[in-house]
């Protein structure tokens, strides 16, 4: 058994019942195997991979709050500070009933390499709660956020750990969290990103993950001699990432046929109407069943099904493991040329292997959705220098970062004899910088 396999076995044994974390570690270790083999003696002596797979700190805390009926509710809060070798911990907060420590660890682990790929000085972390903002009043969401921050504040700071949004955490939640941090700490600092524009947020952060995904996809297709313009796409999700991915896709001449939420999905033969989607999801916080009112020609279906719609490009933008082997077979049978991940780990390991084996260009989440966190780092820079850049300035920097990522992961894959394997390229390129920083900083 090689070093990589030994490390994976230890991770599984030490972290039982955390399948998503195991999956993320396995995917990473498998693809960096050639690097680990080349440096085995050094890595073994320094327990480099073992240290990398063990979070620097894991925090779990109680979040009590009072609902609108006067009933006390209790949720679990988490922050996993995974790796600070190249910068302060950075990564979102997820509020969703499915959240548990294994999910936060998978997200925090992937964040290390994603953040490294941006080329900016940010380490990896992630947090969240099993709280479900859906169906809660604004007052209930505020009560929860204030209680969450009343514990979290002692662990974070502008130079220590800078959380942001993720599933279930958008502008409203970030506002409540920021207000409570400022009140407790009596400090006005860039402790969170994704803030509103009136209190230190960056222009283009809202759009950044979706726009970045499309800049990435455009460049990835370009290096494969394919023009994105004129293509069709299927998108899953109807949240922050999906909405702005669809908007940018349309600006680039791509017709997007679908979107979905946790109960159903929409097929719009004329292309998804972004303004309608924004009103339904961002303004009214309603279900996609509403979409037909805006677009009578569209279809709404219960359950899942976007991957069965024939299109050139597939962009999973909802959640982990939403694209499985059966879906991958359908995509291949439909002649899909590229799958680029807007969500984190949306494609199962089996589906990823199948897509790669069948020649589908695969853009892994760590690289493809790094535009969100990259723009968060740009928000941190603006907060530090107490300036705000224009939308055009931020958007241009975002675009350049995504283009650089494509070329870096392509070169890293080639260097290790894995030409065209962008998942390997992303893991290797992201890992190399973190590895160097960890070795330079001694045994910590
Ligand atoms: N917001 C950001 O800047 C970034 C988000 N991501 C990832 O993108 C994905 C989507 O996040 P956001 O758009 O920010 O969240 P969001 O809360 O704005 O939207 C999530 C969307 O996914 C759908 N969804 C959630 N769970 C689902 C399930 N079990 N089945 C089907 N649909 C489901 C929701 O209905 C919603 O439409 C997540 O994987 C997140 O980790 C990745 C990078 C940055
Ligand atoms: O903007 C950030 O700090 C976090 C974004 C995020 O959670 C992610 O990249 O998955």
Oligomer description: single chain
**Shape annotation:** globular
Low-confidence stretches: none
State the strand order across the main sheet.
Answer: 9-8-7-6-10-11-12
Q: Give the distance, in angstroms, between the N- and C-terminal Cα atoms.
A: 27 Å
Can you put this structure into words, describing what you see?
There is one protein chain. The chain has 444 residues and is α/β, with parallel strands linked by helices. The chain has 17 helices and twelve strands. The strands form two sheets. Strands 9-8-7-6-10-11-12 form a seven-stranded mixed sheet, with helices on both faces. A five-stranded mixed sheet has the order 1-2-4-3-5. A hairpin with a 5-residue loop joins strand 1 and strand 2 (72-83). The longest helix has 25 residues, at 391-415. The two termini are 27 Å apart. Bound molecules: 1,4-dihydronicotinamide adenine dinucleotide and 2-oxoglutaric acid. 1,4-dihydronicotinamide adenine dinucleotide (NAI) binds at residues 165-168, 170, 209, 237-242, 260-262, 317-319, 342-344, 369, 372.
